[in-house]
Design a protein that fits this description.
This protein has helices at 2-7, 21-25, 32-59, 61-65, 82-103, 105-123, 131-151, 157-180, 194-217, 219-225, 234-250, 257-263, 265-284. The chain is mainly alpha-helical. It is globular and about 55 Å long.
Length: 286
């Protein structure tokens, strides 16, 4: 059971924080019903994601066994069997899918869309240059949308844009690490060049900051929250992006957002401070 739990990659569940974004900006953090439904949605997405990680390990079993890093994964190293992994996938999906449909029929279809897209990504789309990164972005967007439908929050188009850009920013930075520092030589990586990814990261990073700045200064945002002080959260967005690129380029920290978030206290502090500013302005009019 311990190795099955490791194979589920629970450290990746941190990506589910996107599900809580609608609660914060929809002014529903104090709504117990919306909060509880969002927590259950987070659980459903976490179970579905873990199921897909196990499916990925099953599909790439032989390749992982000969990989210098992935050979230590529970399935590749023989600590769990293929049958045990398949049984675990069944249990996880048996929990994730009904739970999502119980919360909201739209949430159920979001989970199904996530599973179909994830399987398509593992089998085909991860081999298509640029499209592979857009798929990574889509996974984050589906989390955001799932949070929106269970909390009954209609998100600003600016928030949707910022989330999509952030997901692409993370995705291209992951590819930068993959082609420069990782020993994982997937054929699609050869189609990427470092200069191209640097250009993409610069363009997307600039677009993200501009989009977020426009959101906090938008008349609709100021009217909704009754203040323009959300602008004071912008410097934390700048620093967070700069810090992330710094960790990728100079510290060889890896392209995994979950690993960076767990391992760098300055990134953690930046996110906490950004969140405190947002909550203070949105809920207390500071």
């Amino acid at each position: 059971m311990k190795y099955i739990f490791y194979a589920m990659r629970p450290h990746q569940w941190v990506k589910g924080v996107f599900i809580f974004v609608p609660l914060v900006f929809g002014q529903k953090l104090a709504d117990c019903n919306a909060l509880s439904r969002t927590v259950w949605m987070f659980l459903s997405f976490s179970l579905a994601a873990s199921a897909m990680y196990l499916v990925n390990d099953i599909l790439d079993l032989e390749e992982d066994r000969h990989h210098p890093e992935k050979c230590s994964r529970p399935l590749a190293s023989g600590k769990i069997t293929k049958a045990q992994a398949l049984l675990s996938v069944g249990f996880l999906l048996a929990g994730a899918i009904p739970l999502a449909f119980f919360l909201n029929i739209k949430a159920g279809f979001v989970i199904l869309a996530y599973l179909v897209l994830n399987f398509s990504y593992m089998r085909y789309l991860k081999h298509a240059v640029i499209i592979d990164v857009f798929c990574l972005g889509a996974f984050f967007y589906l989390r955001l949308y799932a949070g929106s439908v269970v909390s009954d929050v209609v998100l600003s188009k600016w928030i949707v844009m910022c989330t999509t850009l952030l997901a692409l920013f993370l995705g291209f930075n992951k590819r930068k690490y993959d082609i420069e520092f990782s020993k994982n030589h997937r054929p699609v990586f050869a189609k990427y060049k470092s200069n191209f990814i640097d250009h993409m990261v610069m363009m997307i990073g600039a677009s993200l900051v501009i989009s977020y700045s426009l959101y906090v200064m938008d008349d609709a945002t100021v009217t909704r929250f009754g203040t323009n002080h959300l602008f004071y959260s912008v410097p934390f967005v700048y620093y967070g992006l700069f810090r992330y690129v710094y960790l990728i380029d100079t510290k060889w920290y890896g392209g995994d957002p979950a690993r960076i978030l767990r391992g760098d206290y300055k990134m953690q502090l930046t996110i906490v401070l950004w969140l405190l500013v947002c909550v203070g302005v949105i809920y207390f009019g500071l």
